[in-house]
Design brief:
Family: Belongs to the LDH2/MDH2 oxidoreductase family.
Structural class: alpha+beta
Keywords: Oxidoreductase
Helix content: 40-55%
Strand order of the largest sheet: 3-4-5-13-6-9-10
Strand content: 15-25%
InterPro entries: Mal/L-sulf/L-lact_DH-like_ah, Mal/L-sulf/L-lact_DH-like_NADP, Mal/L-sulfo/L-lacto_DH-like_sf, Malate/L-lactate_DH-like
GO molecular function, one term: oxidoreductase activity
Oligomer: single chain
Number of helices: 11
Order of helices and strands: EEHHHEEHEHEEEEEHEHEHEHHEH
Protein name: Oxidoreductase YjmC
Amino acid sequence: MSNTRDKVVVPESELKKLGVQAFERLGLPPADAADVVEILVLADLFGLSTHGLSRIESYGERLQVKGINAEAKIQVSSPAPAIRLIDGDNGVGPLVGMHALRAAMAAAKESGVGIAFARNSNHFGPISPYGLLAAEAGYASIIGSNATTTIAPWGGTDARVGNSPIGFGVPNPGGKHFLLDMAMSVVARAKIRNALKAGTSIPDSWATDAQGLPTTDPKQALDGFLQPIGGHKGYGLALMVDLFAGLLSNAAYLTHVKSWVDAPDQPQNLGHFFLLIDTRRLGSASWLAERMNDFASILHESPPADAQRPVIQPGEIELARLASQRKDGIALDADVLALLKRHAE
């Protein structure tokens, strides 16, 4: 380990071992702890530290008050050859997510296309780690989850829509996979909180006040609602994610989703969906690699408006961070490392 200001650089293997120990002490069986840590460490490798092992704070608190079931018995059923239904038994979200991913892979391997609907789950981390695992196995993916409500319906004045993330992935055999991972809000609430601390205003496209009107005041924004990307189009997309992840999965949806902040001891019953396509059914690995590389090169060859910021395709920054941190170690907040150690001990 080495210290960089308030960061500590930890080798991936060491961090995984510590993470597994911490989740085992919180009550998870070893194999389940390994599944959870697989997703959270990939998030840290990508540089998505807010969704990495720092999540042991909220996951750990809910495990300790029995809001999450540490010994979840996850069930998988198959009502049709290409469909899998996953009952997460209120388990840790990334554990349910990994079961759903594997189930969707099995369905896609059998039928060419597979979809898994998961219910009785919790926050399952960022989407891009699942997209990477799918891409490395040869599957293109569309993955989504619903979330606690933080967005007002378009034109409304109270929070009834979740900031539900969706992600897309397309593999590039031997090259850089396409990975897009996005939530439905223009910005995260953390950026608005930072503006309030700094005493600066925010763009009126970020959030509304409590009356549903656009505001540049970060305090009013924190008392109000996040704005969806693309206005009414983002609102519609957020609803579509919830219809697939929540309603079709037989999970909670919209205001039926419980807030883990307000009710940490209550099951959230979040839902997820994993739609996978076996790209090997479409052509050879060399065929796909040639087309994916050409696709990326068309984008890369566009003259940049800022010479210091060349054109990229989604996922390139995260994959570069992953390669760098696998080589040099993962930069982790010192307080996150200390919390992991406390749980592990």
